[in-house]
Amino acid sequence: MSNVLAIAAVTRLLRDLLNDTLIDGNVSQVLGADFTVTSLPPDRVVTAGGAEQPTQLNLFLYRVSPNAAWRNEDLPTRDRAGQLTQRPRLALDLHYLLTAVSGEELHAEILLGYAMQLFHEHPILPRERIRAALELATFDDILPSEFESLRASGIADQIELLKITPRTLSMDDMSKLWTAFQASYRTTVAYEVSLVLIERELPVRPTLPVLSRGGLRDPASGRDPGVLVRPDVASTVPTVTAARPADGHPVMRLGGAVDIEGFALDGGPGAEVTVRFTEPGTGVTLALAPQAPAAPSRLRVRLPDPAPVAPGSPAEGTANDPARWRIGPYVIDVVVRGADGREAASNALPLALAPAGSIGVAAVAPDVAFTIGCSPPIRPGQSVAVLAGRQMQLVPSPNVPISDVTATFTGLVSGTEVPVRLRIDGIDSPVIDLTATPPKLVTVTIP
After folding, report:
1. What CA–CA distance (Å, rounded) separates 371 from 434?
2. Which CATH class is domain 239-353?
């Protein structure tokens, strides 16, 4: 999610993209003169010097407005007691004026043509291009030392991509704007950049896991069975209709198994079947073979044990090495290589990998410290929080991969039982015992 530097980051990003486009187009040679790309107010760009006016392309943020589609998406953010239950998310649209000025004839029109062509050919900015453009951004130079944790490049990791849309302003609106700028009018094009999401890291009041959704109850378990989907039309190509952990939890963990349901998953006699787990952000893919026997409608694949592999082990560096895995979302698909050598890949379904590990507790009055083991290791840059009952403690992201986290809480009463969870990048370690009937919370007794 973006931080408070997102607005400045977008302006910096667009300015650098314009500058790179003009340099790559060798515009200086076309014009026979140097040029600059700025992001200043128009009254500081347009001069009264006539022929002395330098050749310049200026991008000015003249308006910031709430995004109509997202402005109420996160309401309400507090419960009736006033406690924060969800981090407030600020959704903004940025409105820019692109102006070209020059004291030479036709130079301004040439600059404007290059810039408009850039925005027309790249209406959506890929995340990789945003990261590359902001890689060398010098935002840290203008920030006090206590704000070193802020990084404007977070704009590349927000949910929505940045979209550039041309806007038409009437002559009346344009006249009012330039009158307010107190500068002589120059040819101007308006653009809107959407969407910028700004969210601050704040501890929130977590909700406990849902044991039952209500509704019709299963006569055997006494719980809500949920929605069952039974497709009637069979597919002749590998098709995945469901991917769920074998232990019944909504997230998979190392050491557990994942059941995959669908059609034509075994490929027939002599086929080779592989189940792939791919990280959406990095594209890293880990491939595992399903357990035998495989059936056309069901596969089961077991994830590696959470214990670290010994140095020099054949599993080191492979998909069976827990250190290769990352807590977070994965997309799962099945690749079937038939006996004839033809290979077919199924559709992909998402499933998150949650942290697995043990919990240790120690009391040093009046505080209680929880130490939670974690497998796979927590990577640098991942957000970390420990939840004890309805309390949350944020833990700084590590600089190197770590396998345990310690957090201290106050106000926990000795002898009480609380569920303790480790939350990594928004994914909680499960704390429900599904082997009990009905299911119950797994709690830790406060010493």
Report:
1. 24
2. mainly beta
Res. 326: pLDDT tops 50: yes
Domain 239-353 shares a fold with domain 359-445: yes
Q: Judge whether 150 and 1 are in contact, CB under 8 Å.
A: no
Alpha-carbon distance values, 66 to 156, 169, 195, 289 (Å) = 20, 19, 10, 49
Architecture of 359-445 per CATH?
Sandwich (2.60)
Residue 118: strand, helix, or coil: helix
Who's near 151: CB < 8 A, 6+ residues apart? 3, 5, 139
Q: List the chain domain ranges.
A: 6-199, 239-353, 359-445
Answer for the pair 291, 300: CB distance below 8 angstroms, yes or no: yes
pLDDT tens digits for 162-205? Answer: 999 999 999 999 999 999 999 989 989 999 999 898 887 778 77
Share of the chain above pLDDT 70, in %: 89
Mapped onto helix, strand or coil, the DSSP state of residue 100 is strand
| CA 381/CA 447 separation, integer angstroms | 33
Write the pLDDT tens digit of every residue in 199-237. 877 787 787 887 766 555 666 777 666 655 545 566 778
Q: How far apart are CA 88 and CA 71, in angstroms?
A: 10
Give the pairing type, strands 36-38 and 56-66. Answer: parallel
The number of residues making up the chain comes to 447
pLDDT of residue 136: 54
Single-letter code of the amino acid located at 168: T
